Amino acid sequence: MNESSVIDKNGLDLLIKILAGKGYLVVGPTIRDEAIVYDTVSSIADLPMGWTDEQEGGIYRLKKRSDNALFGFTLGPHSWKQFLHPSEKRLWQANRNDSGFEIIPEKADEKKYAFLGARSCELHAVAIQDKVFIEGSHTDQHYQSLRQNALFIAVNCGQAGNTCFCVSMQTGPKVEAGHDLVLTEILQDGDHYFLIEAGSEAGKNILKELKIKPATNDETERAEAIVANTAKQMGRTMETKNIKQLLYDNLEHSSWDDIAGRCLSCANCTMVCPTCFCSTVEDVTDVTGDHAERWQKWDSCFTMDFSSIHGGAVRNTTKSRYRQWMTHKLASWQDQFDSSGCVGCGRCITWCPVGIDLTREVSVIRESNTRQKENPSGSEAQNEDS
Ligand code: SF4
Ligand code: SF4
User: What pLDDT is recorded for position 371?
Assistant: First the structure.
């Protein structure tokens, strides 16, 4: 049975208004600072109508499309993590009183977000952060509160970017889980409409409030063809077979030195990554010393302080820091969380100022490993010093 329905642009506008009426803060793609970033939207007029993005290693440009697509781009630098796991968050405050200090814990944020335009790889990234913040031995109350109130209005990708590789990571481009509603945008023969399907009870209830019409077989097939075509457009691929062992076996590969010669240790790749979750805490006081606060802030394995323990930083070279990042993403994450830490969104490639590309770096190690197996007496790759 065909359970898809169709709405037009006015229907999408109505959806945004229905969500706002239910108390949701609707967040979706908008244009700011020459990039598509996530911000509050109150109507479809806030969406990047008629814009697309061009991406390559270290390159991001907005470009006009020849049509009025609302979701005709891939991904910008933002991910939903900035809302569910904000870059700065106060954990508690303390006020001096007659008997010492009174600690005032921060209340969990009860905001209700409706995330409009989430892509399949991004939903996979949220599921990965759920494992970290909710499903482990320590629950992050702030994340949990925001997460359980959040609604995801996903969009199937109508095009892939040059740095996308979700097909390799089996995280897209078709939205299959983690959504409440999913849209597929269709522009054809002067028509502009959206196939819409529910992925949860909450999504079904919202559908009842929309003016929908059942999708015809033709409309459903068009939507399927769009996603199938996107899957064929991936700008990057990454062979993931035995990737954990490949990286564990090559911790001293000469490639890490080569990357270190290019990497600026700027931490951009960790900031834009939708799964990176590391943070640090900072304590601040006012000038009187009567009031103190503890703040959690995003941190990165690329900063020197990140691995600082008694006596200094454990990873005091760029080589060791990049190796830690990539090996964690693709190998030790599997031991820790039973999944890859990479969903193939490509942001770390696009937003690396020098265009370092983890798909290329993996393939360099894999190819030299294969050559070495074929020619064990050759002098391939392993480096003496770590
Ligand atoms: S490692 Fe790079 S491609 Fe993978 S999820 Fe993070 S930002 Fe995206
Ligand atoms: S890989 Fe690129 S983005 Fe990441 S720290 Fe190095 S230079 Fe910065």
Answer: 86
CA distance 383 to 386: 7
Q: What is the pTM of this model?
A: 0.95
In angstroms and rounded to an integer, the radius of gyration of the C-alpha atoms of the chain is 23
List, for residues 51-94, the tens digit of each pLDDT value: 999 999 999 999 999 999 999 999 999 999 999 999 999 999 99
Residues 6+ apart with CB under 8 A from 138: none
End-to-end C-alpha distance for the chain, whole angstroms:
59
Mutate to test the pocket of ligand 1, among 345, 349, 352 (most ligand atoms within 8 A of CB): 345
Name the percent of the chain in helix, strand, coil, to the closest 5: 35, 25, 40
Domain residue spans of the chain = 5-231, 243-374
User: In angstroms, what is the span from residue 226 Cα to ligand 1's centroid?
Assistant: 24
- From 165, 348, 350, 352, give the residue whose CB has the most ligand 1 atoms within 8 Å, as the site to mutate: 348
Q: Please enumerate in sequence order all residues whose Cβ is within 8 A of that of 287, keeping only pairs 6 or more positions apart, or say none.
A: none
CA distances 306 to 283, 294, 312, 319, Å, are 16, 18, 10, 15
For 243, residues 6+ apart whose C-beta sits below 8 A from its C-beta are 330, 331, 340, 362
pLDDT of residue 385: 41
β-sheet bridge partners, residue 155: 183
Nearest ligand atom owner, CA of 124 = 1
Amino acid at 168: S
Residue with tokens 């499309």: 65
- Inter-residue contact 297 to 281 (CB < 8 Å): yes
Of 268, 269, 361, 357, give the one whose Cα is nearest residue 57: 357
Q: How many angstroms separate the CA atoms of 344 and 358, rounded?
A: 10
> Taking 70 as the threshold, does the pLDDT of residue 1 lie above it?
no
